[in-house]
Design a protein that fits this description.
It is built from 13 helices and 14 strands. By secondary structure, it is of the alpha/beta class. Helix content is 38%, strand content 17%. The protein has two domains: 186 residues, Glycogen Phosphorylase B (Rossmann fold), CATH 3.40.50; 143 residues, Glycogen Phosphorylase B (Rossmann fold, 3-Layer(aba) Sandwich), CATH 3.40.50.2000. Helix 3 links the parallel strand 4 and strand 5. Strands 1, 2, 3, 4, 5, 6, 7 and 14 form an eight-stranded mixed sheet that branches.
Length: 348
């Protein structure tokens, strides 16, 4: 099976969507499939032969809409047409709404692989007029009956849940005296403010590993009276492993429903106990390593952090079983039996 995965984003970056799309391509190639990935940006030394880029201005790593991304998406249309022809018309998998719309504009049939709900996420980026109805429109335009990264997203969009591949990093030695860890960006859809508030209420130290500007985080910590806050840069796997090794527990919030927080899989795959909002589970049945708390409830989150933490040892086996990379090609093939499978974005 030859596939071209289209992702309108910089790559690689520390963000979860980039990490999981890369994991998909690598899992397919490990299984013997000819999988390729097309992303933003000029070529870099050391790029593998399966990684293709559309040159343009730097996109930055922040999620959400921008005029720079509009320019880059326009460039992606021509680049997609070129790669599709040169690769002899592979099956195209369009990751997220932007990619699905680029494929439509390029008149290239594609399977829409949904990673988020735009009707829920778009309003979190600030005072965008008509953000929620615009998000609903974008969800509809992206394509009917998509593949979806979580059960909750599949139900909402009327699509099929396709479990992504994720390789557990392996259990880290327990650190019961360590801080609470939040590892991820500080965009509005994450709901990280609840974690800051919960740590202040529980009198727990908070370690935040992020590639985002930490100024809003520091301001929120000052507002709620969290004195024990440490911020470290999150540039890649070395930083991610170091942060998890220090942590007693990993916090996984979520403000916008639908998508699957890859930070959840990463923490469980490292054998760390997790406190997560119900929304963050995205319809999955969690292992015993996860303590689930009501959405957006800092008091309940704080109570979970104060109480006895769950045993994280069940996490790696659950991740290995639920997100097995070796069988990802089979899972994808069920929704992409051919180049014009059900759920494909029409080229017309």
């Amino acid at each position: 099976m030859r596939t071209l995965h289209l992702a309108c984003m910089p790559f690689p970056t520390p963000q979860g969507t980039q990490a999981v799309v890369g994991a998909m391509v690598r899992a397919l190639r490990a299984a013997g499939h000819d999988a390729h990935l097309l992303v933003y940006g000029p070529g870099r030394p050391g790029d593998p032969e399966w990684l293709h880029r559309a040159a343009g201005p730097p996109a930055g790593e922040r999620s959400g809409p921008s005029w720079t991304k509009v320019v880059l998406d326009a460039r992606m249309i021509a680049r997609l047409r070129d790669r599709w022809r040169r690769l002899r018309r592979p099956a195209v998998v369009a990751h997220n709404v932007e990619a699905a719309l680029v494929a439509r504009a390029a008149r290239v049939p594609a399977l829409y692989f949904a990673h988020t709900r735009m009707d829920a996420e778009l309003p979190t980026y600030g005072a965008l007029p008509f953000a929620r109805p615009l998000g609903r429109l974008l969800d509809r335009l992206a394509g009917a009956a998509p593949a979806a990264i979580s059960p909750a997203l599949a139900r909402h969009l009327g699509g099929t849940y396709v479990a992504p591949p994720w390789e557990p990093a392996g259990p880290e030695p327990a650190a019961p005296e360590g801080p609470v860890l939040y590892a991820g960006n500080l965009d509005g859809y994450q709901g990280w403010e609840v974690v800051v508030d919960a740590c202040a209420r529980a009198r727990r130290a908070l370690l935040v590993a992020t590639a985002s500007d930490p100024a809003p985080l520091r301001a929120e910590a000052a507002r709620v009276g969290l004195g024990d806050l440490r911020v470290m840069a999150l540039r890649g796997e070395t930083d991610r492993a170091r942060a998890h090794a220090e942590a007693a527990v990993v916090a996984v919030p979520r403000r916008a429903p639908g998508g699957l927080p890859i930070k959840l899989l990463d923490a469980l795959g490292r054998g760390r106990p997790v406190v997560a909002m119900e929304r963050a589970l995205a319809g999955l049945s969690p292992p015993p390593a996860v303590r689930v708390v009501p959405d957006d409830d800092a008091s309940a989150f704080a109570a979970a952090l104060r109480g006895g933490l769950p045993d994280g040892s069940s996490g790696p086996e659950w991740v290995a079983r639920s997100f097995d990379p070796a069988s990802f090609a089979e899972r994808l093939h069920r929704v992409l039996p051919g180049r014009r499978s059900a759920g494909a974005v029409s080229a017309s």
